[in-house]
Amino acid sequence: QVVLQESGPGLVKPSQTLSLTCTVSGGSRTAEYYSFGWIRQPPGKGLEWMGAIIYDGSQYYSPSFRSRAYISGDTSENKFSLHLASVTAEDTAIYYCAATPDPLTIDQRKDVARYDYWGRGTQVTVVP
User: What HEC string does the chain produce?
Assistant: First the structure.
């Protein structure tokens, strides 16, 4: 069983960079197959895949976030992070980290239904 836990600030000011970290524990599958993703849900809207990182450090981003998102990983600490620059009120959402141990294609990583393990989510609100 893989357990994920998000951490980060609950409030961010416009134009700042939002940084969230996901701590991963558990799991018995070979780490090299894992995909780790960031997904968010704005109020009243559906889940939105933002991007993912895999074991070798390769990153994949939704076109909607490619210009201002960066995902980093620290395999020694079993953590991966999301950095989202120039936030606005539209970035107010619940942010989830998620993981799957299955080898996925690039397109499959964009499908939130492919992620087997999810954190509880953390509310981020952008306020002046």
Answer: CEEEEEECCCEECCCCCEEEEEEEEECCCCHHHCEEEEEEECCCCCCEEEEEEECCCCEEECCCCCCCEEEEEECCCCEEEEEECCCCHHHCEEEEEEEECCCCCHHHHCCHHHCCEECCCEEEEECC
Closest CA to 100 of 40, 43, 30: 30
Q: Which residue in the block uniquely carries the two structure tokens 């895999």?
A: 54
* CA dihedral for 44, 88, 23, 123, sign (positive or negative): negative
pLDDT tens by residue, 68-87:
999 999 888 889 999 999 99
109-121: pLDDT as tens digits: 999 999 999 999 9
Q: Which residue has the tokens 């939130």?
A: 112
Enter the tokens of residue 104. 């996925």
The C-alpha atoms of residue 81 and residue 7 are separated, in whole angstroms, by: 9
